[in-house]
């Protein structure tokens, strides 16, 4: 995932010719990763699988706080002005559905489809934390030519 972003359920893939089982690979990875990264499952994938380009949807939760917090400092953006959560909820409802996000796509990006089906856009506030949840479905992304030579598929 991007630098500074925390992921739950992150998927990765790699090519290996090891005779080890998926469970053995998971154990080996877990023993060498930092404590804040956990391998939950390892499985053999189709040779055409690519963690980024085979994904058909994504779900993100953005956290906003009105005050800084030592506990939340790495997970939430601090907003120093009042936010109208009810207005945000109303506006969020207007964006749900099939939309073309071309104006939000980098000019030279050929790996991000501009249209998607925005399935969920929720704004909720609890205990001083505003959570903005975004979930969208995209058509299977074709692998751009510059990635085709990368050996990023599991056997």
**Contiguous uncertain segments of 5+ residues:** 140-155
Total DSSP E strands: 5
Give the strand order of the largest sheet, numbering strands 1, 2, ... along the chain. Answer: 2-1-5-4-3
Rg value: 19 Å
Helix content: 10-25%
- What is the global morphology? flat
Quickly count the helices. Answer: 2
**What is the residue-averaged pLDDT?**
81
Label the structural class: alpha+beta
Distance between the termini: 22 Å
Describe the structure.
- The longest helix is centred in the N-terminal third of the chain and has 11 residues, at 22-32.
- 1% of the residues are buried.
- This protein is α+β, with helices and mostly antiparallel strands and 155 residues long.
- The chain is 14% helix and 24% strand.
- It has helices spanning 22-32, 85-95; strands at residues 57-65, 76-78, 97-100, 115-126, 129-137.
- The radius of gyration is 19 Å and the shape is flat.
- The model is unreliable at 140-155 (pLDDT under 50).
- The protein has a 5-stranded mixed β-sheet with strand order 2-1-5-4-3.
Question: In brief, what are we looking at here?
Answer:
The chain is an alpha+beta fold and 155 residues long. It is built from two helices and five strands; from the N terminus they run αββαβββ.
Secondary structure: elements and pairs:
Blueprint: H1 22-32, E1 57-65, E2 76-78, H2 85-95, E3 97-100, E4 115-126, E5 129-137
Parallel strand pairs: 1-2
Antiparallel strand pairs: 1-5, 3-4, 4-5
Features:
155 residues, alpha+beta, 5-stranded mixed beta sheet, 5 strands, flat, disordered C terminus
């Amino acid at each position: 995932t991007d630098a500074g972003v925390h992921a739950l359920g992150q998927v990765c893939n790699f090519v290996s010719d090891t005779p080890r089982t998926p469970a053995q690979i998971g154990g080996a990875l877990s023993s060498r990763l930092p404590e804040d990264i956990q391998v939950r499952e390892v499985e053999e994938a189709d040779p055409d699988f690519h963690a980024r380009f085979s994904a058909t949807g994504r779900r993100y939760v953005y956290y906003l706080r009105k005050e800084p917090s030592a506990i939340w400092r790495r997970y939430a953006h601090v907003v120093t002005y009042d936010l109208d959560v009810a207005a945000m909820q109303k506006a969020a409802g207007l964006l749900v559905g099939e939309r073309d996000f071309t104006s939000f796509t980098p000019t030279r990006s050929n790996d991000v489809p501009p249209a998607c089906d925005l399935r969920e856009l929720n704004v909720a506030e609890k205990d001083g934390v505003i959570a903005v949840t975004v979930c969208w479905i995209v058509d299977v992304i074709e692998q751009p030519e510059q990635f085709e030579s990368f050996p990023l598929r599991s056997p």
